[in-house]
Amino acid sequence: MYVATVPNRGSPPVILLRESYRKDGKVKTRTLKNLSDWPAERIDLLRAVLRGDQLVPAGEGVAIEQALPHGHVVAALETARRIGFDRVLPRQGPQRRRDLALALVIARLLEPAAKLATARALDPATASHSLGTVLGLGRVAAKEIYGALDWLGRHQSRIEAALARRHLAADTLVLYDLTSTYLEGRCCPLAQYGSSRDHRNDRRQIVFGVLCNHQGCPVAVEVFAGNTADPSTLKGQIDKLKHRFHLDRVVLVGDRGMITQARLREDLIPAGLDWITALRAPAAQALAAVDGPLQPSLFDERDLAEITSPDYPGERLVVCRNPLLAAERARKRNELLDATEAELARIQQRVRRSRNRLTGSAAIGQAVGAVLGRRKMAKHFRLSITDNELAFARDAVAIAAEARLDGDLCVAHQPLTRPTRRRRHGARL
Fold first, then answer.
1. Architecture of 169-276 per CATH?
2. Which of 202, 224, 234, 296 counts the highest number of beta carbons within 10 A?
3. Is residue 383 within 8 Å of 402, Cβ to Cβ?
4. What is the C-alpha to C-alpha distance for residues 259 and 413, in angstroms, rounded to an integer?
5. How large is the angle between the packed helices 323-352 and 396-403, nearest 10 degrees?
6. What contacts 24+ positions apart, CB below 8 Å, involve 419-427?
7. Are the C-beta atoms of 250 and 273 separated by less than 8 Å?
8. pLDDT means per 10 residues in the chain (429 residues)?
């Protein structure tokens, strides 16, 4: 007995269950059943039975020992290889160390965790995804992870130089900014108390700065002590661009807290680099004076304009205004004014009540200062404090003056020492 497949010209073949037998010394066949309407899986099963294969019920005889998530691993790993990330890693050292470095980066994308947890996620005995298996890492110890980090640290300058050759070129924009992160331990020599961007002034922190190309692709990173001021890091980045990356004609873009007048005078201008940054609020207010070049009428028809000022000779000033942000800032300012006024009213009641009064200009001033300092609203109130009285009122003139600069009204300035680049960077700015 067997299953036969009989061609049927232009139609699907006919599947027949047939039997062979002898008659008068000759071998003949007869059809027992037409199986053409059976599903293919059922026909294959019948063929296995006729062959004498040993069949077991589904689920018996097969044991799933490990099933690891795999799709996101393939997506991240193939993306890294397509952009040539693995080719940026140094060739020096054993291949396993390069694989571990690549695994650290991919694992950081898939499951950000501590290095000890990452080692466990890569080890086949405790794996949480298939990355270690795909890269053929086998057993992974935590000390290997730290060793790979030390190896990357020793080759950091070489890796950054390769990234600079790939993503930076002369006559281009270079973006630079810093951030910080706080620490829980005590052994990091760079951990210091400083201005915390995480609002954790009770913890030591480190500061790190990143150089990017005009598309935001990171090229170089540097770590600083937690009490390092932003402007003091700028000179090192200028030296890095000129001497390590050999870029003489770039435009460095940084925020107003970093590219200060002192840094322009002492670092950027002597290095011959151009820059784009934003003016601080007092400088913008000076331009927005009654007879200044920055007037609200500039934004009647557009939200971007170019102005000039004798205070900034040879520099291009670009001003912009965001009306949606202007409305949002006005709303927040009104909320802060209302909250501050309510707290001042409570202090005023403490001064005027008959029992347990708050007396003395020093004590009253200390309570008022705490309220105004917490919300930074001192410039918007006019106060009168005596030993037995507190009077306050909103300063409408100061509030209106600040409202004129609402909408993230930014005054960005760029030198015009090389007019050939004026057209190139105008649209990006």
1. 2-Layer Sandwich (3.30)
2. 234
3. no
4. 11
5. 160
6. 421/171, 421/251, 421/274, 422/316, 424/171, 425/173, 425/251, 425/276, 426/318
7. yes
8. 86 89 88 90 88 78 80 95 90 89 94 93 92 93 93 93 90 90 89 90 93 93 94 93 88 88 88 86 81 80 83 84 85 94 94 90 93 90 92 92 73 60 43
Residue that is written with structure tokens 């004609």 in the block: 249
SS3 105: helix
Residue found under tokens 């912009």: 320
- How many CB atoms sit inside 10 A of residue 366's CB? 11
What residues does each domain of the chain span?
2-51, 84-154, 169-276, 325-403
pLDDT at residue 313 in the model: 82
Cα–Cα nearest to 99, from 109, 85, 113, 111: 85
Kindly report the pTM of this predicted structure: 0.70
Measure the CA–CA gap between 140 and 132, rounded to whole angstroms: 9
Instruction: DSSP for 243-277, please give it.
Output: IIS---SEEEE--TTTS-HHHIIIIIHHHT-EEEE
CA-closest candidate to residue 55, choices 68, 39, 74, 41: 41
User: From edge to edge, which strands make up the β-sheet containing 11-23?
Assistant: 2-8, 11-23, 26-34
Locate 246 and state its tokens: 């050999």
H helices of 111-221, in order, are 115-122, 131-134, 142-154, 156-167
